[in-house]
Amino acid sequence: MHVLDILEARGLLKQTTDRDALAAALSGGPLVIYAGFDPTGDSLHVGHLMPVLSLAWLQRAGHRVLVILGGGTARVGDPTGKDKTRELITAEQIASNLESMRPQFGRFLRLEDAPGEGLGGADIHGVTFIDNAEWLMEWGYVDFLREVGSHFSVNRMLTAEGTKQRLDRNQGLSFIEFNYHLLQSYDFLHLFRERGCTVQVGGDDQWFHIVGGADLIRRAAGGHAFGMTVPLLQTADGKKMGKTESGAVWLDRDKLCPYDFFQYWLNVHDDDVEKLLKLYTWLELDVIAELCRAEGQGLREAKRVLAREATRIVHGDDDAADADYVSRVLFGKGELSADDRARIVRVLGSSGTFPHTAMALPAPWEDCAVAADLCASKGEARRLVKQGGARTWNDRVDDPLAPVTEPSVLWAGKKKAALITAG
After folding, report:
1. pLDDT for the residue numbered 78
2. How confident is the model at residue 83 (pLDDT cuts 50, 70, 90)?
3. Do 33 and 65 contact (CB within 8 A), yes or no?
4. Catalytic residues
5. What is d(CA 62, CA 84) in angstroms, rounded to the nearest whole number?
6. Do the Cβ atoms of 330 and 259 come closer than 8 Å?
7. Could you report the per-residue pLDDT of 199-239, keeping only the tens digit for each?
8. Model pTM?
């Protein structure tokens, strides 16, 4: 398959500036392709992964990939999709965010050359990282206006969807935000001139900026360049995806631990499973189709494959195996060995969402249940025990004063659980 067909089949292609010409160019030899990421936060999230994975498929097809870390553009802030001006962040915070984000790309993109290991035996060229502060911060304001700003029409800039929405809602747009379009467009021109870059990849909300860059290349350099976008991450019913109760689905394990990351994918809507398997795994399309033909328990297993594969490419084999194991065993039946219990405690202890209470052990079961908010009072805990709904691990509790002697998972009924650790 042509790499554009692969991207389209996997749901990673929304718009292109000239599909036929781009397809021909991609077939004609290695192109230099870039995507930019502003370090306005200290971690990528699953929304960022869509353009990153598009780059990964393009890299596998033998093309050269540039990742532009926007140390310059982050000082302005992209107004796209925002209903108010971003809070400006300091140069020190931008530098810190850059260093935090940079290693995450290596989980998906090849950092070193690998001759003959791409799609169809194409060479894989190692990714190149560049900070656009290298060229943006060198400009003088008047020089930038003369050399770059002169190619842009204010009338056209006012038609950009994000700008139009802000103005229609009387939400205002600061002058610094209005200039962001010029900066991103210039990035493309600079990379065209200095690196021979002819393709930009971005989210579909970046279409106006991408087209602006390609147009600037034509106007200022007489060149021809292409743009392509990935769709925005949405559920089957059109709602924005990639959020949990506690916030974004981050790739940084300190912001969202691997177990919680796994659980996010395990709990997606049935209608989204096939789409997400295509987007967030390396599985072949025929394998995905076979997985998603199933219903009931078979579809639940497809979700588990999605959770395991997505966690594996972000966090690695060991963390994916741990998360999958705990998810299966914790909600299962039967006796748990000491090793089982230790592994579950270790994984759940790092979770930000699984209820976790530290207390002095040993302690009566009823005290632990109250401390962990499994029961509102000791009286409620005693009634639960009497009704047969109290468990430590998979063992029924018959005495509310039975001691909890070691880190354990306590259950109130079939669905309400908490981890108790010593502390």
Report:
1. 83
2. low
3. yes
4. 40, 45, 48, 82, 86, 184, 205, 240, 243-244
5. 41
6. no
7. 999 999 999 999 999 999 999 999 999 999 999 988 887 88
8. 0.90
| Mean pLDDT on 88-101 | 92
* DSSP line for 60-121: HTT-EEEEEE-TTGGGT---TT-SSPPPP--HHHHHHHHHHHHHHHTTTS--S-BTT-SGGG
Please name the helix (run of DSSP H) or strand (run of DSSP E) that holds residue 291, with its range, or none: helix 285-291
User: Is residue 37's pLDDT more than 90?
Assistant: yes
Whose CA is closest to 352, among 242, 247, 268?
Answer: 247
Query: Which tokens belong to 60?
Result: 């596998």
Q: How far apart are CA 198 and CA 192, in angstroms?
A: 6
DSSP-assigned letters across all residues of 214-257: HHHHHHHH----EEEEEPP-B-TTS-B-SEETTEE-BSSTTTS-
The closest alpha carbon to 129, from 90, 103, 108, 107, belongs to 103
Beta bridge partners of 124: 114
What are the chain's domains? 3-230 (3.40.50.620), 243-348 (1.10.240.10), 355-422 (3.10.290.10)
